[in-house]
Design a protein that fits this description.
It contains 4 helices and no strands. By secondary structure, it is mostly helical. The longest helix is centred in the middle third of the chain and has 26 residues.
């Protein structure tokens, strides 16, 4: 049983998490070390703004059925 758990450990540490070891930067600057996180946050923010603009566009055109019986669960 012990070998089974060591095999799981080896799979995760040496195979599945290997790309993260490649991306890890050994730098002293916090902003540079978290560049990928900043990129993902920027993409998420842009996607949220786009989604809100699309919702506003549909709301301004009155395309959404806002009646109480619009959804069966209401």
């Amino acid at each position: 049983m012990k070998d089974f758990f060591y095999a799981i450990q080896d799979l995760f540490v040496n195979v599945l998490f290997a790309p993260f070891d490649f991306l890890r930067l050994d730098v002293k600057n916090w902003f540079l070390a978290n560049t990928i996180s900043w990129i993902f946050m920027a993409i998420g923010f842009i996607a949220m703004v786009y989604w809100m603009l699309q919702l506003k566009k549909y709301n301004d055109n009155n395309e959404e059925d806002k009646s109480v019986s619009a959804h069966s669960y209401l």
